[in-house]
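FORM 7B: Structural annotation worksheet

SECTION A. Query
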Amino acid sequence: MAIRDKRILILSDGKAGHESQARALCAGLGVACEVVRVAYPFRLGKAASYLYDRLGIRTSCCFDVAPFEGPFDAIVGAGSTTFYPLKVLARRLQIPSVALLYPRGYRLDFDCIVAPTFDQPPELPQVVTIPANLTNTNDAFYAQGVAEFRQRHTPARPAVGLILGGPNPFAHMEADEMAHHFDRIFAATAGMERWITTSRRTPRAVEALVDRLPFDYKLIYSRDTFNPIPAFVMLCETLFVSNDSTGMISEAVTRGRARVEVIPNLRNPHSKFGRFVDDLARDGHAHLFQGTLGEARRKIDLAPALARVAERLRW
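SECTION B. Predicted structure
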């Protein structure tokens, strides 16, 4: 059977950033997929999964999974909620398992683990390390994104794009601090069109600030959930991305031709987010913005990692 004839079952925890990486893996391998939701219905269910895993017990009593129809040739899950169900269902269906992101706390007896280097995974035969998160490698996906964006905005000059995330346990985002960053970005990009998009995590105070500033194109996520990021990635000369989302930064460093500037907003620059950007900066993929633009345009090719995944699956 050719790879294109195979099918993958994706276990989703409902987090868009996790599910998108699983879909990106399938797209990169050129195979069809079916996505089903998995969850722990009881408060201690997930805690029990760590114990069951350590004891080598494979039981579905602690989690729920939506109905699905096979057959499948592999099963994929991203995020800790999926890791134990991934093992249980892989054994039940007798197909190989692929864990995306490092499954910390669980035994590493998956058939393949695709883990970013900033998670510092061990060197094992089943571990495929990547310098950034998996992102969509389908040219048609980006072409469609550009076409849809052009229906909303017609660029008149070369553009810079700003992609904002929001606060999380590793990063903060205050309106006053962002005003300072915006002042420096406007000063460094004179003569360019300036585009910006917020996200579901962007604080309302920051969105209000964005709304007051003279951007040539702005997307306020709380009012409009259109996704302009594929167009930003493909059309912009420079991309500014807040330092709170490995997914958004990964998309910027794997596609297009823009130089990538990371807006510093980490609580702890020595966290895994800090390691991520430091590694990208070292290898010329991104530049930490401090008021002047760098020339970090080198893009990451995910094809070798995808080939190693196919090899681990014996495809």
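SECTION C. Observations
The longest strand covers residues 32-39. The chain is about 35% helix and 20% strand.

SECTION D. Sign-off
Analyst initials: ____
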